[in-house]
Amino acid sequence: MKNKNNVRRVTVITLASMMMAALTACSPAPAEDDANDPMESINRGVFEFNQVADRFVLEPVAKGYRYITPDPLRSRIGNMSDNLSEPLNMIHAFLQGDFDHGMVSFWRFVLNSTIGIAGMHDVAGSAGLALRKEDLGQTLAVWGVGDGPYIVLPIMGPSNLRDTGGTVGDWFLDPVNYVIDDTSTEIWLAVAQGIVTRERLIEVLDDVEETSLDPYVTMRSMYRQHRAAMIANRGDGPLPTSGE
Predict the structure, then answer these.
(1) Going by C-beta distance under 8 Å and a sequence separation of 6 or more, which residues neighbour residue 176?
(2) Percentage of the chain surpassing pLDDT 90?
(3) Pick from 100, 131, 98: which is nearest to 116 by CA?
(4) Which residues touch 144 (CB under 8 Å, ≥6 apart)?
(5) DSSP conformational letter for 234
(6) Average pLDDT for residues 23-47, to the nearest whole number?
(7) Which residues lie below 8 Å from residue 24, measured CB to CB, with a gap of 6+?
(8) How far is CA 79 from the centre of its chain?
(9) Which of 95, 223, 200, 59 is nearest to 147 (CA)?
(10) Closest to 87 in 3D by CA, of 185, 179, 181, 189
(11) Whole-structure pTM value
(12) Other beta carbons within 10 Å of 42
């Protein structure tokens, strides 16, 4: 049964990647000043829903987590969350032809999982092996797949056609999910990582809400800068992904 599940997962990610490549290849390239947001009215509706959900659920949970969790412990939890992403970072670095950083991710996972006690301590980072997040959306971009139209996903927020397909594909591609091999545990792990991510973004999103004339446009711009920076390996852009 497990082998059948593995075959199914590989088949799904292959088909999803091919579909994303075909769809984005057929999408016209936007002009430099074009928002490439043909579904803006729908996206704004989803954005408003997300803001309500964030205001009454996600933000209070993130702030509650920050309030009850001491800084050192929160840092350790963040490191563990980052460490769980290293196998996927390694795979995508290799797929992008960046074998040097693929080995960096490999050794980060080995060192932090052992000497760093299950990833609680970023000993690899202290040794000069820096964290760099990679995902299928970035890999597809390196392969020449265009980003496609801008999309706002329920709860998950800003995305585009390529990155949405990449998010789905990464669920099947992530080696951690194969090790766990239990859907309920995978879901709870994703929820926990979501809380960690939202806590890291408290100041950024509060600033957008307080200072932006149009938070929707601001978030769209920030997302694109963030993704462009990650694809070019220039860091995280305006959105932090690490607690360090």
Answers:
(1) 84, 87, 88, 189
(2) 75
(3) 131
(4) none
(5) S
(6) 70
(7) 140, 145, 146, 147, 148, 161, 162
(8) 15
(9) 223
(10) 179
(11) 0.82
(12) 12
DSSP string of 144-161? T----SEEEETTTEEEEH
SS (H, E, C) 191-209: HHHHHHHHHHCHHHHHHHH
**Mean pLDDT (whole number) for 96-117:** 97
**Beta-bridge partners for 151:** 159
* b/e map 108-139, b = 16+ CB within 10 Å: bbebbbeebeebbbbbbbeeebebbbbbbbbb
Please list the residues that pair with 152 across neighbouring strands.
Answer: 158
* pLDDT tops 80 at residue 244: no
Could you say which DSSP state residue 121 is in? S
| 219 within 8 A of 47, measured Cβ to Cβ | yes
